[in-house]
Amino acid sequence: MDSIIELQRQTHEEIERFERALYTALSRPQTTHERKIQNEQKAAQMLDRICSKTTILNNLYLDEDARKVEINSLSPPSQQNDLSEFYSRLVKIQEHHNKYPDSVSGGIDLEIAALLEDTELDGEEEELEEEDSISLMFSGEEAYGKYVDLYANHVEYTNIKNIGKRPGYLQYLDLLIDAPFGVIHQDLPKDVRASKQYETYIKNLHQYLLGFAQRSQPLVDVEGGQVAAETEFNEAWEANGFPEWTDQKDASKPVNGEESGIWCAACQKHYSKQTVYDAHLTSKKHIKATAKQAAASDTALANPNGPTPPPTWNNTTKTKLREAARVSFLVTKLASFLLTTLNDTKSNVERRFSLTAREREQELLEQHKPPAAPTTAATEERIYNPLKLPLGWDGKPIPYWLYKLHGLGVEYRCEICSDHVYMGRKNFDRHFQESRHAFGMRALGLPNTKHFHEITKIEDALALAEKLKQEGRHEIFQQETMEELEDDEGNVYNRKTYEDLKKQGII
At the top level of its lineage, which domain of life is listed (predicted)? Predict the structure, then answer.
């Protein structure tokens, strides 16, 4: 028997190792929907193992008697260094390894490695189906948990008697999408909702939606949400919060909405036509019900063909309606939880209706093709880069000395580029010829020339532009004053003086 203290230490270690494995699984890149489901399923298995180990550890801590016995056996007598217990246990360990020399320790390592092992997608469908056990959890219509497969539930719903108009599959999906605005199927007649067919249908629907939610979102506590929904239903039912299910005003009304008809007290059933009522009087069911009612009461039925009496709801009918209302309320909560998936399913069905037979076949072939494997292992590897260094040509951080050599830790901010920050002098010098800086200069109405190099402030750029403009006018004035012209008499004047004298008529 192992020491209880050693079992506690070992359990603590296993919990910590499962927690690290859980972090590794959740930190993997989820490039596709299939990989996301795989990671979540494996993470759910690790969470289950952590919960079970935590329960075992808690029970070990609660066992005070065993802990006390273990501590007393390890404690030597007073003023005595007794190692007899230690050597006896050492002998047992040696005997165990001598008896089982091929035993391998570290079974937890194999279990964690199996959970963290990625599915190898080598392009062959047979190998993919054998290795990817998670894909077997979903049907082809569910597409790895993207959509729901409610075709069987739709057929079961349309086969219920007296439901009125039988909807198509898209209309049936609309019923579930609109369910969060009220309890699903509450507009059906009460005798339909209290029937055995409806009870079987709604339970199958609830079972499917609950299983799909657990399979497609394993990290969500779906069962906890259902327990809370059931508590909410019980409180609302006691407060008469479901009048569509508890109100008995329309219980005497037939399904087709007619007020006239004949009530059979023996069969507890309403017949809308006289011919149907007369035909059922000779049936074995009616005769058996009449005999049973006569045995239970001394008085026989009086005037079975008389006016329609108001029906009475017995406890069985109330119990059936309450159970149907409870499951329908839980289905409504599940439909609200899976509302996005239901909308995606409806869109997918509408899209597939618009495809030709050849396009559908091609789509099925593409769905069965395994996704392409990653080209390098670096895509799955987490890069350790605490200093936030730039990545080199190999996808790894550059050396720190190279980072310091190029001054990549120095920030250069350019106000003309909308306060964009450039790391390093080389990137800063290069950005003056890039499109971002040129766009900022055009927005200011300035040319992106070499005069504005090293100018990063908008105010400085505008001041420099005004200075260049003034210098340009001065050069024009100098050209006007330095140019010389000659009149008819041979006198030489500069251009400005020559033009002034000519305007005055002197020349």
Answer: Eukaryota
CA neighbor of 349 nearest in space, from 51, 148, 85: 148
Helices (DSSP H) in 31-168: which residue ranges? Answer: 33-62, 64-74, 84-99, 107-116, 125-131, 151-158
DSSP helix, strand, coil percent of the chain (3-state; round to 5): 60, 5, 35
**Cα–Cα distance, 409 to 455 (Å, whole number):** 21
Contact of 176 with 184, CB cutoff 8 Å: yes
Alpha carbons 93 and 167: distance in angstroms, whole number: 71
Cβ-contact 464, 452 below 8 angstroms = yes
HSE value, Cβ hemisphere, 13 Å, CA-based, for 453:
6
Residues 159 and 206: their CA atoms lie apart, in Å, by 18
pLDDT, tens only, 251-275: 334 444 444 457 777 777 767 667 7
- Overall size of the chain counted in residues: 507
Query: pLDDT tens digits, residue range 461-472?
Result: 999 888 888 887
**pLDDT number for residue 151:** 92
* Beta-strand relationship, 420-423 and 411-414: antiparallel
- DSSP E strands: which ranges in 174-290? 262-264, 269-271
Tokens read off for 470: 């003034």
E-only strand ranges, 260-389: 262-264, 269-271
CB 176 within 8 A of CB 328: no
Strand partners, 391: 397
Residues 6 or more apart whose CB falls under 8 angstroms from that of 405 comprise: none
Question: What is the value of pTM for the model shown?
Answer: 0.54
Joined together, the tokens standing for residue 443 give 């927005």
